[in-house]
């Protein structure tokens, strides 16, 4: 299993930079919030009797009931037989379930933590689920997953015109951070979150004299943010020029005290064309060359992932602000997770983005423009030397034991019945150095009853002297429930009531916490205001000079902007030609899902592709003042609902990554079996759907 390197906070960057003190203040406030809620311990010691209440256990088991029902009796017997003979020491005390106090549920992915009433011990902090995650992350980005919507189909198209077919050969885009999901959460969190992936490009139709099919592009996690239009995969020369002028005009308007009225008028005239994307009609317009150039995002082919959109009315402004507030909560949850791992540099990086999003909320209220973007960050990949799906026990050393041979047995309650046993070789006392390390599969941890048992029962640690390994000379216990949320359980000083003065050092490790996604770098989708994105970085203070100050020159009159940089006659002719070509382009016909197909499961990338195809057809029909293809508008609404439901299920952890992979595999088998019953005209579209799901499945398996 190849190890993936996690970028340090210094290697991860984004445009806006905030004053360190400003971000530190926000981080201190977050730490205070964690301390007040009893979530944070600087020493990162775990509470030996930390138990979750019934509500938390039910939440962690959500989505696992289906999987246990799928287990065959043959498989269960085989697994139980493997370790059914684990021996239990006679002196082992019965673990009584601790009384648990229910706490009110916290906001956004923060799980309430329970503390045992009896023995005080180190605290364990709840780990946020990120994407993604899909991450994601797959932040994702996007977990994420982390994270993915699924398409559906409708009744057949009424007229025979070229169908937009998915292109299975389209290569998946490369993730800039290599990971995902939590997340965030990807990513979450990740959260992280599940493996989350790079900016997603949505398909659209190229400007051509002849109709060209809409080609899908297999994409990674995290789930995309909904935008008001579907941009084209490639822009044309005229649209790129319009986009560049619009971006520079916007930047000049923000940072120039002069000609702001002129710039505002130019923004208002260009915004409809920019927001509509390259597929829409470009009307003739007189333009003024902006005084300043935007520091970034002025090249449409590079900026396509961050297309500027507009919120048209108060309800859409509120929808975007609600979306940003939800992203802030998820990032704050990841920052808490990072603090719990003493990764302050990462936490500062995440809180910087939280600050940017808070500024965006205020900006969007004044300027209703927003940009879907991807925030890249990482959560530590803890214990990445341990394969997924196993638990490792290390028996390291002891002190204060009698002389002679000492044997240690550790019994883990990770089976529905009985224990999995770890036994060291005899080692000489009084201060034995065991250096014992062994792994065991997390045998039945998909069984909800086993997870409940692991949550409530401790692991037993027995000490034997000499060759007698049947009667324990001393016995202790380790609550292992925190392995559901944490990667490492460190017990440096286990004591034995029967052996005063003797201590034992035992550690338990997992690569990923049992109840949450693996921690990975995250591509997390966020929404921000362009004026915040283009915020000028603070200038460094000028070096102190001994030279006398130079008197300031008198202010020069500013030339009227409307005489600068007007388009030449040749450029106007090219613009008119492009407009004519777009008007001649026919609206493509796409496959419309039947009601039966609409009720089926479809993968996230396939859902996204068909939603994009529907949006393109609707936009082109509106441009030509035609009625859109019958059934397309209704299909888009239903697909968007299915994608939203899928995104919520993945983000909440109701559908885990392994379960999602199995669902895609079943959908592929279902569609391959349906091909023989389809009409010849529908077969190519369905084969494209199969290839698109196979591409997504390959990406998910590669990430695993």
Overview features:
five-stranded antiparallel beta sheet; disordered N terminus; Pfs2-like; alpha+beta; Immunoglobulin-like; four-stranded antiparallel beta sheet; 704 residues
- Beta strands, count: 13
Number of helices: 17
Looking at CATH, which topology of the domain at 43-118 and 386-510 would you report? Answer: Immunoglobulin-like
CATH class category name of the domain at 43-118 and 386-510: Mainly Beta
Mean pLDDT, rounded to whole units?
Answer: 67
- As residue ranges, the low-confidence spans are 1-18, 40-58, 71-235, 536-565
- Level-2 CATH architecture of the domain at 43-118 and 386-510: Sandwich
Biased composition (Acidic residues): 38-70
Biased composition (Low complexity): 541-561
Biased composition (Basic and acidic residues): 80-90, 96-129, 140-153
Region (Disordered): 38-219, 540-568
Describe the structure.
The chain is of the alpha+beta class and 704 residues long. Among the domains are: 43-118 and 386-510, Immunoglobulin-like (Sandwich); 232-306, no CATH class. It has 17 helices and 13 strands. The chain has helices spanning 20-36, 54-61, 65-70, 73-82, 237-255, 260-276, 300-303, 314-340, 344-366, 448-456, 530-533, 569-584, 595-598, 604-623, 632-652, 657-674, 683-703; strands at 132-137, 309-310, 369-378, 390-399, 404-412, 420-423, 427-429, 433-441, 458-465, 474-479, 488-496, 499-510, 521-528. The strands form 3 sheets. Strands 5, 6, 7, 9 and 10 form a 5-stranded antiparallel sheet that branches. The chain has a 4-stranded antiparallel sheet with strand order 8-4-12-11, with no helix packed on it. A hairpin with an 8-residue loop joins strand 9 (458-465) and strand 10. Helix 8 runs antiparallel to helix 9 (344-366), helix 14 runs antiparallel to helix 15 (632-652) and helix 16 runs antiparallel to helix 17 (683-703). The protein starts with 19 loop residues before the first helix and ends with a helix. 45% of the residues are buried.
């Amino acid at each position: 299993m190849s190890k993936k390197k996690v970028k340090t906070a210094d290697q991860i960057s984004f445009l806006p930079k905030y004053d360190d003190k400003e971000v530190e203040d926000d981080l201190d406030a977050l730490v205070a919030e964690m301390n007040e809620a009893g979530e944070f311990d600087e020493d990162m010691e775990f509470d030996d009797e930390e138990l979750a209440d019934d509500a938390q256990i039910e939440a962690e088991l959500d989505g696992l009931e289906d999987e246990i029902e799928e287990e065959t009796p043959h498989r269960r017997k085989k697994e139980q037989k493997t370790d059914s003979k684990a021996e239990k020491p006679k002196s082992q005390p019965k673990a009584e379930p601790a009384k648990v106090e229910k706490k009110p549920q916290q906001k956004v992915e923060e799980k309430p933590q329970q503390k045992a009433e009896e023995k005080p011990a180190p605290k364990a902090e709840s780990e946020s689920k990120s994407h993604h995650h899909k991450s994601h992350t797959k932040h994702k980005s996007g977990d994420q997953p982390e994270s993915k919507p699924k398409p559906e189909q409708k009744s057949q198209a009424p007229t025979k015109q070229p169908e937009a077919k998915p292109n299975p050969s389209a290569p998946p885009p490369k993730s800039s951070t290599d990971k995902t999901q939590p997340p965030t959460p990807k990513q979450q969190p990740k959260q992280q979150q599940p493996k989350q992936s790079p900016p997603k490009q949505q398909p659209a139709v190229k400007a051509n004299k002849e109709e060209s099919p809409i080609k899908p592009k297999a994409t990674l996690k995290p789930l995309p943010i909904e935008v008001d239009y579907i941009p084209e995969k490639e822009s044309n020369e005229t649209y790129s020029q319009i986009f560049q002028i619009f971006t520079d005009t916007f930047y000049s308007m923000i940072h120039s005290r002069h000609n702001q009225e002129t710039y505002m008028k130019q923004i208002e005239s260009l915004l409809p064309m920019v927001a509509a994307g390259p597929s829409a009609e470009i009307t003739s317009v007189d333009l003024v060359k902006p005084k300043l150039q935007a520091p970034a995002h002025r090249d449409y082919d590079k900026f396509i992932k961050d297309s500027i959109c507009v919120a048209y009315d108060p309800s859409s402004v509120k929808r975007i602000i609600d979306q940003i507030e939800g992203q802030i909560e998820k990032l704050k949850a990841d920052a808490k997770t990072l603090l719990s791992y003493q990764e302050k540099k990462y936490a500062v990086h995440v809180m910087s983005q939280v600050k940017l999003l808070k500024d965006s909320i205020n900006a969007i209220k004044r300027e209703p423009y927003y940009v879907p973007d991807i925030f890249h960050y990482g959560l530590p990949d803890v214990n990445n030397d341990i394969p997924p799906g196993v638990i490792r026990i290390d028996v390291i050393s002891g002190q204060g034991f009698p002389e002679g041979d000492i044997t240690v047995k550790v019994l883990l309650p990770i089976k529905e019945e009985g224990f999995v046993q770890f036994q060291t070789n005899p080692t000489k006392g009084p201060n034995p150095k065991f250096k014992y390390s062994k792994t065991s599969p997390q045998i039945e941890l998909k069984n909800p009853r086993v997870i409940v048992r692991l949550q409530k029962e401790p692991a037993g640690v027995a000490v034997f002297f000499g060759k007698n390994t049947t009667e324990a000379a001393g016995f202790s216990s380790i609550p292992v429930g925190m392995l559901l949320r944490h990667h490492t359980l460190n017990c440096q000083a286990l004591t034995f009531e029967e052996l005063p003065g003797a201590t034992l050092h035992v550690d338990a490790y997992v690569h990923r916490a049992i109840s949450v996604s693996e921690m990975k770098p995250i591509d997390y989708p966020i929404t921000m205001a362009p004026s915040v994105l283009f915020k000028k970085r603070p200038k460094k203070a000028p070096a102190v000079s001994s030279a006398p100050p130079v008197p300031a020159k008198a202010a020069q009159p500013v030339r009227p902007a409307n005489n600068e940089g007007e388009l030449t006659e040749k450029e106007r002719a090219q613009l008119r030609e492009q407009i004519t070509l777009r008007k001649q382009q026919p609206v493509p016909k796409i496959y419309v899902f039947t009601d039966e197909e609409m009720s089926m499961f479809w993968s996230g990338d396939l859902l996204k592709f068909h939603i994009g195809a529907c949006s393109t057809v609707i936009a082109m029909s509106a441009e030509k003042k035609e009625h859109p293809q019958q059934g397309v508008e209704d299909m888009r609404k239903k697909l968007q609902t299915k994608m939203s439901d899928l995104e919520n299920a993945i983000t909440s952890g109701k559908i885990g990554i392994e379960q999602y992979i199995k669902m895609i595999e079943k959908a592929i088998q279902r569609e391959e079996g349906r091909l023989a019953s389809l009409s010849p005209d529908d077969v190519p579209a369905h084969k494209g759907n199969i290839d698109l799901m196979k591409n997504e499945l390959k990406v998910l398996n590669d990430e695993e």
